[in-house]
Design goal:
The protein contains two helices and ten strands. It is mainly β and 207 residues long. The chain has two domains: 134 residues, Triple-stranded beta-helix; 41 residues, no CATH class.
Length: 207
């Protein structure tokens, strides 16, 4: 039987850890997906052109966190529409662990125009893992992309999903807790509702 344990102090270099070890730990507490928030990495268009835009936001993929600050704004201009057939494209977030990459990127992936078009597949293997923010319909002969052409896929567990804490008790205990003053306790704090405010200061839990 083998036990994988971490993290211990190194003595003469006998305990060394990698980014994969940290990601392994984080992935056991946070699921893959994008962070909560209606505008977090929301894909949108202005309806007057063919430019597809992405609002700032972040998420976690396989234990690696990322954040797009929106400077400059993320935008894509799809290739021209097919004159006859519709096409489905996707805005994706790609985790790339190949040795020459080692990054997370937001990309635009085009599909193939067809009588029965389908969105491009998502790659999910040991080196690459992709989630979809949005499906984009490029209508035959169109010169603009409108809001109705977008299908938000952030909340779809199959294509993306939201980042969740996988430790149920932690998730429940700290859910919807915000305060504008100070919270101090010599015992346990249990809340069944919501404490509204902005900052928790000097809190002591289960002392």
């Amino acid at each position: 039987m083998a036990i994988r344990s971490m993290f211990f102090g190194s003595v003469n270099g006998d305990r060394k850890y990698t980014s994969d070890d940290f990601a392994f730990l984080i992935s056991h507490f946070f699921t893959t997906g994008v962070l909560d928030g209606a505008d977090n990495l929301r894909v949108y268009v202005n309806g007057n052109d063919r430019v597809v835009r992405v609002l700032p936001g972040g998420g976690c993929i396989l234990g690696r966190f990322f954040f797009e600050d929106g400077v400059p704004e993320v935008l894509f201009t799809p290739s021209p529409a097919d004159p006859v057939n519709n096409r489905f494209d996707r805005v994706i977030v790609k985790w790339d662990n190949q040795s020459d990459q080692r990054r997370i990127s937001i990309l635009y992936r085009e599909g193939i125009a067809s009588v029965t078009p389908a969105p491009p597949d998502l790659t999910r293997d040991a080196d690459e893992y992709e989630v979809s923010l949005c499906k984009v319909l490029v209508r035959a002969g169109s010169t603009t992309i409108v809001a109705g052409d977008l299908t938000d896929e952030r909340d779809s567990a199959s294509y993306c999903g939201r980042v969740k804490c996988t430790a149920p008790q932690l998730s429940e205990n700290f859910k919807n807790i915000n305060a504008s003053g100070s919270i101090t306790a010599s015992g346990d704090i249990t809340a069944a509702g919501t404490i509204q405010g902005s900052v928790v200061i000097g809190a002591t839990y289960g002392a």
